[in-house]
Amino acid sequence: MRESLPRSVRRVAALVRHDLRLHRADLTPLVTMTVMPLLIMAFVRPLYLSSLSTRYGTPPDGVPFTGAELAVPGVAVIFSFFLAADVGYGVFREHGWRTWDRLRTGPARPFEVLAGRAVVPLLVLLAQLTLLFSVGGLLFGLRVRGSYAAIAAVGVCLALCLVAFGFVLVALCRTVMQLNVFSNVAALLFAGLGGTLAPVEQLPGWVQALAHVTPTYWAMRGFTGAVLDGDGLGGAVLPCLVLLVIAAVLTVAGLNRFRFEDRKVSWS
């Protein structure tokens, strides 16, 4: 066991380095998924400002709201879901290049292949969330009344949840077109149900009931708790735990459905 662990780590690291080279060769997706949400934040910020005034009235600390308190986390969560499909692109790319069978019969074990395919999408999601909160905060005057550590913890748990969701999409989809469609539909559906487009309390009752089973709701609850309500790291414990539970459930579902021998149809 002690001898196999380093070899296992080296095999996973080799897959990660390969994925990193491919991502560095084309940074367009990450750049697009960072610039577009920043533009959207500029448009929706006045609408969120109106929601904040209705919800809170006068800010408890006397510092005026800017609208960024909901615009930045809301738009960041929405666009993070669009990147969940990045998990599947690595698998579909291997099928398109006719290298999947060689990867299957190579020295890397199935769990090492899946682990290697998860690391880079996880890093990309964390980079996107970090950029959107940092740049969006600077551009639109986001003021965090609570803990930055709480925001970071929720961001990590959300990214893990999205990687697990990406594996479910890979397991269910046969073609890359299906992957694109289902990931985009899921992003918009979770956005509407989870309170990223409008505060949950302003949504219809049936939506409020469904919101609690969506990862977007718990991500927004964790982010807005730190940004608006002044929550510390302790306030992020419940959202983080729920996101991790959702991630675990999605991981089990994806692993139970995923078959290495399934044929996937890429662009080519």
TrEMBL record:
Membrane topology: Multi-pass membrane protein
Segments passing through the bilayer: 27-50, 70-92, 113-142, 148-172, 179-200, 236-255
Record-linked PROSITE patterns: ABC_TM2
Recorded superkingdom: Bacteria
Annotated GO CC locations: ATP-binding cassette (ABC) transporter complex
InterPro entries: ABC-2_transporter_component, ABC2_TM, ABC2_TM_bact-type, ABC_2_transport
Major subcellular site: membrane
Residues in ABC transmembrane type-2 domain copies: 28-261
Any one GO molecular function term: ABC-type transporter activity
GO biological process terms held by the UniProt record: response to antibiotic
Subcellular location(s) per record: Cell membrane
Pfam family, any one: ABC2_membrane
Family: Belongs to the ABC-2 integral membrane protein family.
Name this polypeptide is given: Transport permease protein
